[in-house]
Structure formats: C-alpha cells, structure tokens
Design brief:
The complex is a heterodimer. Chain A is built from 20 helices and 25 strands. Chain A is of the alpha+beta class. Chain A has three domains: 26-57 and 75-220, 3-Layer(aba) Sandwich (D-Maltodextrin-Binding Protein, domain 2); 232-320 and 580-624, Periplasmic binding protein-like II (D-Maltodextrin-Binding Protein, domain 2), CATH 3.40.190.10; 328-577, Dipeptide-binding Protein, Domain 3 (Dipeptide-binding Protein, domain 3, Roll). Chain A has a four-stranded mixed beta sheet with strand order 2-11-10-9. A four-stranded antiparallel beta sheet of chain A has the order 5-6-8-7, with helices on one face. In chain A, a hairpin with a 3-residue loop joins strand 7 (171-177) and strand 8. In chain A, helix 9 runs antiparallel to helix 13 and helix 17 (512-518) runs antiparallel to helix 18. The longest helix of chain A has 23 residues, at 2-24. Chain B is mainly α. Helix content of chain B is 60%, strand content 3%. A three-stranded antiparallel beta sheet of chain B has the order 2-1-3, with no helix packed on it. In chain B, helix 5 (145-181) packs antiparallel against helix 6 and helix 10 (246-253) crosses helix 11 (258-295). Chain B starts with 17 loop residues before the first helix and ends in a 14-residue tail after the last helix. The relative contact order of chain B is 0.13. Classes of the chains: A alpha+beta, B mainly alpha. Chains A and B meet through helix 7, helix 10, helix 13, helix 14 and helix 15 of A and helix 7 of B.
C-alpha cells in the first residue's frame, strides 16, 4: 500500500515538474502551421497544390540518366568535413534523403513542406516550428520519427562540420513537443537573419536507429540507410555510383515530389580531367553536363552527332541572380587606389568588348550590375524609393549615381581607345600622377606608379590583358602573377596586392553576406571577404537597408541603390556576366521547358523519352557506319 | 694519356698543335655534325638579331624629312604630332595615320610583332590560326607565335649555355679537388654529392616560387645549385687516375704547387671528358628550362618561352599550330646540338685517327 502511494506521489511529482517546465516554456506555443514559407514575396503555390509547374505528373518512370562528376569520392557521411562526399549524399538536397522543406525552383525564395507537413515562424522569429509528416518511413520500413529529427539536429550541433555549425549558430536550443513537432529557439543576442528558417529546413534528416551503433564522426564507405527517392545499388569507390529508384518511396505522391525523380537509374561517373570528361560525353558514355569553359563551348560542339541533331548544345537562361563573373577588384587601402580618380582612370583603360571577343569567344554578357540577371539589379536612373535612401548621403556619393546609368566605357573593340586614354591621363594628372620620361610618376614624390596584380589562376591574369597593355602605353609599371592557391588566398586576405579577381556570387537572399563583402567591419579582417577594404558609411547604411527590408519593393530599392554606389565608386572593374547555363546533352529526355528556373533540374524533373532515346541509338549506329 | 708527349714542339707555341689539328679534322670528318654546327650557327645568329627580325617597332621611320630609328631609340608620340608623352605605338592605326600625314614612311621588320605584342586587330578569337599576318598563328593572348619562337629559342639557348658553363665550372672544380686530394676530402665530398643529389629540385622550385618572385637570375641560381653534379663523377675519376702518374709525381718533386699541378698537368686530361659531355649537358639544360616553363615554374610570365607555348598547345588542342611549331623548333634545335655534340665526341676520341676512322676494331 505504502509503495503504491509513494509510486503515485512520484508520478504526481513528475507531472508537476513537467507542467512547470512547460509553463516556463513560451517558445512554440500555438504554432500557426503553413504548407510553405517564402521570403518577401507571396508563395506561388497554395496549400492544395498538386505538383510544381516545372514537373510533369504523368512523366513515365523509366530509363536512366548518366551524369559525369569532376573529381572523386571516398565517403558517404556528409555531417563531417572529412573525406570527399559521394554525389547524391549531400547533406542538403541530394537524392537519397528527405528534408523538412523543399525549395521551389520557379520562385526566387520559396520553400514547401516535404518531410514537414507544416512550418510555423514566430512573427519576430523568436522560434521556428516544424510538424513532421506521420506517414514517412526509411528504406528499411521503419517510420521516420521525431526522435530521428532530434537526433539529426543534435548531431549537427555536436559533431557537424564548420559549415553546418555556422548555419546553426543562431539556434539556441532544439526541443520536441506534441507528438511530432519540433521547435528551434533563436539565440536572442544574434541579429535576425530572415533566411534562418530556410537554412534549418534544407538539411536532410538522418536515421537514429541506423547511426546508434555506428560512429558518425568518421567517414564511411558503407552506404548509410536513407529515406529518399533513390537508393545506392552499386558503387566503385572513387569512380562510379549507381542509384536505383525506390519503388515504394513514401513520398512519391506528395506535392513537392509529384512528377519528379523519374529515372529508374541515376548514374554518376567520375572523371579527373576536364578534356577526358568532354570526350566521354561525346562518345555517349555520359549523357548530360554543364560545359564550364567558354573555349570548349565555342569550339568543341560541332561533331557529327550535333549535326545530326542527336546532341544538343543549349544555352539555358536561368532565373537565379548571376552577378559579375570574376571582376577585377582594387585594394583601396593602397595610396594610389584610395583615390577614386585613379580607379576611374583604370576603369577607362579596360576594354571589355575586345576582351570578350578575343579571349572569351564573345560568350559573356557585359557585366553592369553586381546583381545582374535579377530584379535586384539597378537599371535606368534611381527611382524615388532609391533616392530616399541615397539623398541623405548626396555629398558622399559620386554624382553620377544620380545622373547616369552605369555602363562600361565606350569601346570600338580594338583594345585601345584614344578618347578613354586621354581622359584617363587627365584623371591621373588631377590625382597627382604625370608621365615624365615615359614613366607615370607621383608629381610630389617622384615615385613611379606601380600596380601588382594577382589572380587565382593564369586566366584571371590573362583577362586583364587590355588593361595592362594600356598601362604599358602610359608608363605604369605592373606585375601580374597567379601564385599557388593557398598563397593567393593569404595575399588576398592580408591585402598584399593592388588588383585581384574574385567571384562574389550574390544569392536571391542577400543580407549578412553583403556585410562580409563590402562592410567596413569586415575590411582588413582575416575572416572577412572585403578584400577591396571598402570603408564607406554610405555602403554600410545601404547594406543595413537591404537586411532590414521586409517587402520586396524595399529590398529592390536598397539593392539597386547599393549596386549604383558600389559601381560608380569604381571599387572594381566589372567584366562579363554569364548569360545562362551552358547545358550540353544527348537528346534523349523529356522536360517541361521553363526558362524561369533557378537551376536546370535534369536529374530530378526530367524524364526518359523512349522515342528520342531510340532515335539517338539508331542515329549513333548510322553515324558509325 | 698522350697530352704531354703528343703536345707542342718546344719554342713553337701555336695554339694549333698537331693534336688540335687532328681533333679539328676529326670533327670535320663527321659530316653530319659539321653541317649541323653551321646550320645552328646561322639560325642562332638570326635569333641573336631578333629585334631586327621580329619587332613591333619599325626599323626606320621617315617623318617630315628626318629619319627615326625606333628600334634603338624611344620616341614619344608627340614627335609625330600625337598627343601622348609616352612612346608611340607604331602598330596603332592612328599613329600610322599621323606618320602618313607627315609625308612619312616606315620600314618594318619581316615580322611586325615582338614576342609580347598583342595584336589588337585580330579578326578571330585567340588563339587564331596561321594567316598572312601571323605566319604561325597567335597564342591565346593574341601574341604572334613566330616572334615568340624566335625570341624564345634565343633565350632558351643562351640560358642553357650560361647554365652549362656555370655548372661545368663548378662541377669540374669540385670533382677535381675530390679526385686530386682523395682520402677524407673525397669521402666527404662524395657523401655530400649523394645527399645533395637526393634533394627534390622540383619541389624546392615550387616552394621557392611561392616565396620569391622568380626571375631569370633566381632560376639560373637554383638550377646551377642542382645541376653541377653531372660532371663531378667523370672529372673526379680522371683526377684520381692521373694524380699518381709519373709526370704528376715529377712535377710535385720539382716543387710545383697543388693548384699548378691541378690546372696545368691534370686538368687537360679531365677536360677531354668534360668537353665530350658539354654539348649533351647543354641540350639537357635547354630541355630542363622548357619543361619547367611547361609546368609553370620557370621564367616569369612576361618572358618569351618555348615551354609555355607548348603548355598552351596542350590546353588548346583545337589550335595545333601552337604545339606543332614549338615542337618542330625545339626538335630542330636539339637535333642540331646533339649532332654537333656527336662530332665533338668524335673529335676528342683518342681511338680515332685524323680522318675519324676508328684505330681499334669496334
């Protein structure tokens, strides 16, 4: 009897404790679950949507797609940074796992529930809650439970690679509630980053029962258990991965997956040489890839199968922000380059038209915006909303921001423009540099002006050709070299250069990133990428406006104003911008053609077209005869 | 050895001793080597005058009645009625128009490009194929390949020559000292050479390339530091053998110093082996420089280089003129040098008579 009482007391006590804990817990109370979330713009698909428009729900499930991969792999565990991860096992995305949210690639920044059937965000983003689907299961038939989810995020926080830990730096704690819900509480001290829910939601969920008796801090070549649309069936470590479509995949009919994952087999073949990879594709060993080299794009695709219409070279427009392709940036900490007139003079001496024609096979578009190929890019003259942001700084902003649209200096396409040269010499002389005895010198000190260019590869140096040729002409001494990569990185970070090339690829959700690239705080810091060492209050304020924007309109006004100020300060010489995705493939597949996608979804949304495939097969036989 | 008794008649110290005469005629007897030398000398003389053969400045300009020599002197554009204080770019159409306006004329070298001239008026993307303007096409920066070959061949040969001479001098000295003194010196020297030869030259070059900005002298210094070993063994062996010959012992008994004995009495024996090796060391040096350039650890990027042209040929397989022309240039140069080397070897071969025939059955 006594024991029964004490037992009941114990239960009562425990219940009180739990109640007390819950009373103190205000996070994730009454979450208002939605089917998807987006950034600034409204969601395109409603709660009852049946499939993404870029997919074909009636696509046949058949055939195979063979994709070449540059490099090698020796690991299936993406949680840690060790090892080289196998394609398909990426910790965000991939084709073998599932995650809470799935991005919709025909919208700028929208995510819909995949493993989560609901996501809720506190209005101040104090917390984010996800509700797990109940019918999801692993490939071994075990259900995916909230325990798996908790295990996954705790593992990330405890053992995750630096990238994962950084992504979760703003998360204070994670706890489960209800019977299938999970709550992420934001660290209050950290500034609100509007992309946090997306960041959390795109990580794959891992099976707890599989990893319990295995060490997740080590690399592995035993393919781990997963839950996604594909399962690894054959692997030759470092060389080949063959994935097979999972027939009873739990999520094959949920809206975000309907019409996707159509190939019965996905094969990743690995290469260690770009040329060999290209030739392998030409001989129909692999089907589809992106051509990364302008020269090859222009010269390599006229073989018989192309003429016979069996092989396609397709420049695909994509909707994601492209930005500038490796612009030439200046170290504004150097005395000469801290003068905007010197930077403008240098801008006048570079001829993009000639560079593009002679060095790049006329492939690139002229780069005129840091946010090129997106509504965040400026165009025409500043709008009223932009002027609102710019007006307070009028005296600290180059006057052309208000009066001119940014473009490249005039060019006839032969490298040297006498008009530009003359104007550049005037600017140099205003800034205190004159040519004496064929050498450009500082008029006060008599020291010759020298410029030291570095680049990550020989090609980064080569693209400055028209500029340095003009520098020779006006007696500016220069050196150019591509040091070995880690040395290049060191010199870039520590500011041991005058000119450098860097690819700063903006995303559809610009924010803290911009502060890292252009903010005064990051200037001269080892961790930052403000290699131009910009310390400009106008730019700092405009970046704040970008981060604070809570409507698309405000965001665009802020990015456009920032764009103008960046470019008219001549911190960099913009070169080209990629006009699209260079897709080369054998014509065997079906697709819902849409030129407004953030990427080309050939693995997950295209399908096997039996007739076309047969045509390629017959065509190849004919060509062989 | 025959050096002493076969030498000059006392009192008649002409440098053409009978021995030299025999060697010269032996050299000439190797017809292939003899002609190779001549062809090489002619070609090399042409490259020595590279500035007159391939240049982006005219040899002679007549402007308003006076003569200008742009190859030798620098004239600012203002001299021809232009606006800039900097040197005139004679290839620019506007400068050409200025000169024509002043009743001027220009005499251009046969190849109107220097090794680093970028042809802004290229009609097609670089590398552009051979044409009337660019005999061997251009590289991937729009620079003329023919001009680069001429300048590059000259630089390669001169670099190889200096490298060979320096490393031979060092190698002969060290080998000589080791062989002559023998004993502990020899032992220590040989161990040092072994250790030194074991150092990975390529890695040292890569590391150095990231620390210092490479230039011709750096590269030369490093290569000399690692290439003097090739002669040490041969010279040491000759000295070891000769140090106890009777005439050496006699010289020592007469009170000759070690230095004098080494230079005057033993070295000529060693020189035969050295001179025989020399042409092959030279070709080796040229190949070494080319391969370093090919790998990207050679001369600084703005110097003309055969190796870099070859590297471009590799990355631009659709532009075969890059690889082919460089290959033929290198092959020609190396073949001529090897043939010459064979003739030199014949010349110093004591077993051959003065018509180059073997005295002993082979």
């Amino acid at each position: 009897m006594r024991s029964v009482i004490s037992f009941m007391l114990a239960i009562l006590g425990a219940a009180v404790c739990v109640a007390g804990a819950q009373a103190a817990e205000t996070a994730c109370t009454n979450p208002d679950y939605r089917h998807g979330i987006s950034h600034l713009l409204p969601l395109k698909y409603g709660p009852e949507f049946s499939h993404f428009e870029f997919t074909n729900p009636d696509a046949p499930k058949a055939g195979e797609i063979r994709v070449p991969i540059m490099g090698t792999f020796d690991n299936y565990n993406g949680v840690i940074e060790k090892g080289r991860l196998a394609s398909g096992y990426e910790i965000t995305g991939g084709i073998v796992y599932d995650r809470f949210l799935e991005p919709s690639i025909d919208e700028p920044v929208s995510y819909y529930g995949r493993l989560a059937d609901g996501v809720a965000i506190h209005p101040e983003m104090d917390w984010i809650a996800f509700r797990l689907r109940k019918d999801a299961y692993w490939h071994d038939g075990e259900p995916i439970t909230i325990d798996d989810v908790l295990y996954t995020y705790n593992t990330f926080l405890e053992h995750g690679s630096v990238a994962i830990k950084t992504a979760f730096a703003a998360v204070e704690r994670v706890f489960a509630f209800g019977d299938n819900e999970i709550c992420f509480v934001r660290r209050k001290a950290v500034e609100v980053n509007p992309t946090l829910p997306f960041t959390i939601g795109i990580f794959n969920i891992l099976p707890k029962h599989y990893w319990e008796d295995r060490d997740i801090t080590k690399t592995t070549i035993e393919p781990p258990l997963a839950s996604g649309p594909y399962r690894l069936v054959e692997a030759d470590v470092g060389r080949l991965l063959v994935y097979e479509r999972v027939e009873d995949y739990w999520g094959r009919d949920i809206p975000v997956n309907r019409g996707r994952y159509n190939f019965n087999q996905v094969k990743f073949d690995h290469f260690k040489d770009e040329t060999v990879m290209g030739e392998a594709q030409k001989s129909h060993v692999v089907d589809i890839r992106e051509e990364g080299v302008s020269k090859n794009w222009a010269t390599q695709y006229d073989f018989p199968a192309v003429k016979a219409g069996l092989f396609k070279r397709d420049l695909r427009p994509v909707a994601s922000v492209e930005g500038l392709w490796w612009p030439l940036i200046w170290n504004t900490e150097r005395t000469a380059l801290s003068d905007i007139r010197v930077r403008e003079a240098l801008w006048l001496l570079f001829d993009f038209k000639w560079t593009n024609k002679i060095l790049f096979y006329d492939f690139y578009d002229t780069g005129v915006s840091f946010f090129q190929n997106s509504p965040m890019a400026h165009s025409g003259l500043p709008s009223e909303k932009e002027l609102e942001l710019l007006e307070p700084w009028r005296d600290q902003v180059p006057p052309r921001v208000f009066t001119e649209e940014f473009r490249h200096p005039p060019s006839t396409g032969v490298g040297v423009q006498r008009q530009n040269l003359k104007r550049a010499l005037d600017l140099f002389s205003e800034a205190g540099y004159e040519v004496t005895d064929g050498v450009m010198r500082n008029v006060h000190t008599g020291a010759p002006l020298t410029l030291d260019f570095i680049g990550v590869s020989y090609y980064s140096i080569r693209q400055n050709l028209s500029l340095v040729q003009n520098l020779d002409l006006i007696g500016v001494k220069w050196t150019g070299q591509a040091p070995e990569v880690s040395n290049w990185l060191h010199r870039s970070r520590t500011g041991k250069f005058d000119g450098n090339s860097v690819r700063l690829a903006p995303s559809n959700t610009p924010g803290l990133q911009l502060r890292n690239w252009f903010g005064s705080e990051a200037a001269g810091q080892d961790y930052g990428q403000n290699w131009m060492r910009i310390r400009n209050p106008v730019i700092d304020s405009l970046i704040d406006s970008v981060i604070e924007a809570d409507t698309a309109e405000d965001l665009y006004a802020a990015t456009r104003a920032l764009d103008r100020v960046l470019l008219w300060n001549f911190y960099m010489i913009p070169m080209g911008s990629q006009p699209g995705f260079r897709l080369v493939h054998w014509d065997k597949f079906g697709e819902v053609r849409n030129d407004n996608l953030n990427r080309i979804p050939f693995i997950d949304a295209w399908w096997w077209d039996e007739d076309k495939a047969q045509r390629v097969k017959d065509g190849l036989l004919q060509l062989r005869d | 050895m025959t050096t002493v008794n076969d030498g000059s008649v006392p009192g008649q110290r002409s440098w053409i001793t009978p021995l030299t005469r025999r060697r010269l005629s032996n050299f000439r007897a190797n017809r292939r080597g003899f002609w190779s030398l001549w062809i090489f000398v002619v070609l090399f003389s042409v490259t020595l005058m590279a500035e007159m053969v391939a240049n982006d400045k005219p040899l002679l300009v007549g402007y308003e009645g006076s003569l200008y020599f742009p190859v030798f002197r620098t004239y600012p554009e203002t001299a021809f009625g232009g606006v800039f204080e900097v040197e005139a770019d004679y290839r620019e159409h506007e400068v050409q128009a200025m000169i024509t306006r002043g009743d001027g004329w220009m005499i251009w070298p046969p190849i109107p490009f220097s090794y680093n001239t970028i042809d802004y008026y290229l009609p097609a993307p670089a590398p552009s194929p051979p044409s009337a303007t660019h005999w061997f096409g251009t590289d991937n920066m729009g620079k003329d390949v023919a001009a680069q070959l001429i300048y590059g061949a000259r630089l390669s040969f001169l670099f190889g020559l200096v490298l060979t001479v320096l490393s031979s001098v060092i190698g002969v000295c060290i080998g000589g000292v080791q062989g002559y003194f023998g004993g502990l010196v020899d032992l220590a020297g040989q161990r040092f050479v072994e250790v030194w030869a074991g150092l990975p030259v390529l890695f040292i070059l890569i590391i150095l390339a990231s620390i210092v900005e490479s230039n011709v002298f750096w590269l030369l210094g490093i290569l000399v530091a690692f290439s003097w070993m090739s002669l040490v063994g041969v010279v040491r062996a000759e000295f070891l053998r000769a140090r106890n010959f009777q005439y050496v012992t006699a010289a020592r008994a007469l009170g000759a110093s070690d230095t004098r004995i080494m230079l005057r009495h033993v070295l000529p024996n060693g020189m035969v082996a050295t001179l025989t090796f020399l042409p092959f060391i030279l070709t080796g040096s040229i190949t070494l420089l080319t391969s370093l350039d090919f790998l990207g650890f050679g001369l600084p990027a703005e110097s003309p280089s055969l190796g870099r042209l070859l590297a471009q040929g590799r990355t631009n397989v659709h532009a075969p003129w890059l690889g082919l022309t460089t290959f033929f240039t290198l092959a020609l140069m190396l073949t001529l040098l090897i043939f010459t080397g064979e003739a030199v070897r014949d010349a110093f071969d004591p077993r051959k008579d003065d018509r180059g025939r073997s005295k002993v059955p082979e």
